[in-house]
# Entry
Amino acid sequence: MQHAYQLGSGWYSEKTPGKRPRAQLGRLAAVKAYYSDHFVLPLPAGHRFPMHKYSLLRDRVREHLPAIELCEAPAARDGELALVHDPVYVTAVAEGLLSPAQQREIGFPWSPAMAERARRSVGGTIAAARTALREGVSAQLAGGTHHAYAGKGSGFCVFNDVAVAARLMQAEWHRLKPGALLRVLVIDLDVHQGNGTASIFARDDTVYTLSLHGARNFPFRKEPSDLDVELPDGCEDQAYLQALDGALEQVWAAHAGAWPGLAFFVAGADPHEGDRLGRLKLTREGLAERDRRVLNACGQRGIAVAVSMAGGYGHEIARTVDVHQQTLAECLRHWQAVEHRAGRSSQAGAY
Ligand SMILES: [Zn+2]
# Structure
């Protein structure tokens, strides 16, 4: 079976005159991670959303993971958002027409900066997905806004970044490879259920949704994913990793050898034991093992992976940033393995 990212490389080198195959790029090559933390949303004092987490994470990457290339996330356009979202809702966000009730459900007051940040959050995941299809793996330093439905936002999520990026990648794939279908897998390991994503793809068998989440956590009305795994409060590393292994086995069995071309890994830091909202008890080491297992399982099957950071609300925000940072370090390790398997010499160096 051909690897997705090999398909990706061929896609660019065959179809885009002037673009050189990645193997010739040499020293310019590195894992790309998309950021949008400079689009800050003004929040009232005492608001529980950790807005500064994102700039702290970018500082950490710059300092400790120099082999990761930081790229500014583009803004998603109305037409891209409308692949998933009701155009009336897209307009309401863009033009400040959200009702007070809609704003309360999202958890953010509307402002032009709120609308711009929401577009950038989707744009970062689109860019990461496009890059992953070409290079095997890419990340975005925000995103994972999985509580957003087609017609409404919820739980700090305005638009559903993964859903929009999935539909757009399928459309681009189909256009460049007429007749080809890009199957997509969503591996949602944020501690909260991916209810918006499950709802959007409920009747779409080209996108498989897996969610591992706290049974007693938000959202209290869950939507059926293709596979939901509910975890009890206080769940620790060993039980979590066992549940993850079992879930991934079911995912692969459901695909019967016809692997998806692209996976979105929603790598929430909120299952961590130091999280204010998570209710689970995973250690930092347990979460690193989670990340390795997901990336290795996708890598072994040649599935490109776009990683979003998603939730993380630590009592100490620095501990949350530690978890996100190690997810990015695992992405880098994975990318180096992909490069190695593809017979290219990685120029990225140590991290
Ligand atoms: Zn979460």
Q: What stands out?
A: The two ends are 31 Å apart (CA to CA). Residues 317-341 form the longest helix (25 residues). Confidence is low (pLDDT under 50) at residues 1-28, 345-351.
